[in-house]
Specification:
This protein has 9 helices and 10 strands. It is α/β, with parallel strands linked by helices and about 270 residues long.
Length: about 270
């Protein structure tokens, strides 16, 4: 599918005319985890001619979260730089509902530089360049949700609190087609965690190409998991894409406990 065709299909189920594209420019926040879907959604926003006021990432100061990706989400700071966007990190302890309140507060009032630097200091990671608040007005939130009602409804409530619109361009896209589109449009995607039958430690740190995607889809059919990982079967990071000026280079190590594991990232940089 061409980028023009993608743009027409993704805009809330109808074709958007050239006139609407010109008059409907927005300034938006992208909720960005660093994964394939939020990075794809950021590209969608830029294709529409919208300005990304900031990519916003919730950094979880706990082992798990019902709402947000954990462990590797800080790589969003590098990706945001490669996309030419400010990066706004918001630290949260990851408690259900409270983490959404933390996001709301950060978007409204900004964040503490000390809190963000402390989060990185605990992990021995150099913090990418970040901002502590969004400069200027903005009028929308873009999120890469696919089928999670839990995530979508909370973002919708958040947007109502802020008085802005919410955009979910990938909502209910077919999983197999979505993954194929990601690869065919030039995104380079790494699998950084797995937690499903059929996915062993060999998938950790693996970069998906056409052959790898065929293997993944075949396993999803055999073991009955979502080929796009929407059920939590795997998580990803985007290393490069058509809207990124350089490739993300990562250093890390596999951590496997016998049935699930992650590729723990210890350092990262951008190759121009």
């Amino acid at each position: 599918m061409t980028p023009e065709g993608l743009l027409s299909i993704l805009v809330v189920g109808r074709v958007v005319t050239g006139k609407e594209r010109a008059s409907g420019a927005r300034r938006v926040i992208v909720l960005h985890s660093g994964g394939k879907d939020s990075t794809y959604a950021a590209w969608w926003a830029q294709m529409k001619g919208w300005e990304i006021a900031a990519c916003c990432t919730v950094l979880i100061d706990a082992e798990d979260s019902m709402m947000f990706q954990t462990d590797s989400s800080w790589v969003s700071g590098l990706q945001s730089s490669a996309m030419g966007c400010p990066w706004l990190p918001i630290v949260s302890e990851g408690e259900p509902e409270i983490e959404v309140s933390d996001l709301l507060q950060g978007l409204r009032s900004g964040v503490s530089m000390d809190t963000v630097e402390e989060w990185f200091g605990k992990r021995g990671i150099n913090a990418p360049e970040f901002v502590t608040s969004v400069e200027g007005p903005w009028d929308g939130i873009v999120v890469g949700a696919l089928r999670s009602d839990y995530q979508k409804t909370r973002v919708e409530r958040l947007s109502m609190e802020l008085g802005v619109s919410v955009h979910t361009p990938l909502w209910h896209h077919d999983g197999r087609s979505h993954m194929t589109d990601i690869i065919s449009h030039g995104f380079e995607i790494m699998i950084v965690s797995v937690s499903s039958d059929g996915l062993d430690s060999s998938w950790l740190g693996r970069v998906l190409d056409i052959a790898g995607l065929k293997d993944l889809i075949s396993l999803s059919e055999r073991y009955r998991f979502h080929p796009d990982g929407e059920g939590g079967e795997f998580e990803t990071l985007a290393l490069s894409g058509p809207h990124m000026s350089g490739k993300i280079l990562l250093e890390g190590e596999s951590r496997w406990n016998g049935s699930r594991g992650m590729w723990h990232i210890t350092n990262g940089s951008i190759s121009n």
